[in-house]
Amino acid sequence: MKDKMPNETKWNLVASCGLYCGECTAFLNRKCGGCRSNKGLSTKYKKYCKIYDCLNNKNLKICLDCKEFPCKFFNFFKAGKLEESSWFLDVWSNINQIKEAGLIKFLKKKANWLKKRKECAEKRGIKYCDDCKLWPCELLKRPVLVPANLKEFKEFMRKCEKKANFFKKND
After folding, report:
1. Is 14 in a helix, a strand, or coil?
2. Which residues pair with 95 in a beta bridge?
3. How far, in Å, CA of 89 to CA of 66, rounded?
4. For residues 35 and 33, what is the distance between their CA atoms, to the nearest angstrom?
5. Domains identified in the chain, total number
6. 17/88 Cα distance (integer angstroms)
7. Which residue range is the domain that position 56 belongs to?
8. How many helices (H) and strands (E) would you count in the chain?
9. How far apart are CA 95 and CA 65, in angstroms?
10. Helix, strand or coil for residue 32?
11. Do 70 and 51 meet the contact criterion of CB atoms below 8 Å apart?
12. Residue 45, in any domain of the structure
C-alpha cells in the first residue's frame, strides 16, 4: 500500500531539533499537530523556539543540515547528569537516522516502535506509557515525551539568545 501523506505533512512528525512528535502525549491526544504544524500547542511553543526560528530562517528541515550544528540552541537537550541526558541521545539518534535512512524509513521505524508501546500499554490497561509505573522498560528507557513547561521553555530560550548576543559582541 502506497503512503499518500504529503512529504510536508510527514515533516510535522519531526521537530527541527529531531524530536519525534508522533510519540508526544499532546500529539497523541490531538492537542498538538506536531512542532511544525501550526496546530494546537505548537503555535505557543514555536513563538519561543530558537531552533525552529533558526532553521526556518535558513530554509533547513533539521539541525543536522546546518553548518553550525551542534550549536547553543541544540544544547537545550543536554543535561547535567548522565541519567537525564537520554533525551539528548534520543534526539541525536533521530537526526542521524533521518540523515542516513531518510525521513520515510525513519517514520516507519518510529511507527512500529510506537505500535509496540501502544500494545504494551493496552496489556497493562493504560492509555499511554506516561501512565505506566513500570518504566523505564525494555521499550522506553527514558522519560515519556510530554510538552515542556512553556514558562521554563521561554526562559531557557531567552537565556540562550542572551548568551548568543554576548558572544557576538565579544568576537
Report:
1. strand
2. none
3. 18
4. 7
5. 1
6. 10
7. 7-102+141-169
8. 7, 0
9. 9
10. strand
11. no
12. yes
